[in-house]
Amino acid sequence: MKIPASLVAALTVSLAAGAASAQEARVQWGDLDLASAAGADAFDARVTAAASRMCRGVKRPGSRINDRAFCRAAFRDAAVRQLPGAVQVDYALSRVPVVL
Fold it and tell me: Are strands 10-16 and 22-28 parallel, antiparallel or unpaired?
């Protein structure tokens, strides 16, 4: 299902990057068909690029150790959660491997 770009064109994902600051990133998706593998791949690439920018030097909550993998996973989960419900389903179904 493709949502018109004029309806919702971007997600805004926020992550706490330390106790005193927060960062925001916008991930455009309104131009993608997330029901298709190609559209979902493009969305994943955009989320990965944004997460890479956002997760520089981020530490796991309650730790002093840098943990970019944790941050990237949290960023990706937040981005997918912000998609409208039907689009989340389309995206999830496009990620299921095809078995012949």
Answer: antiparallel
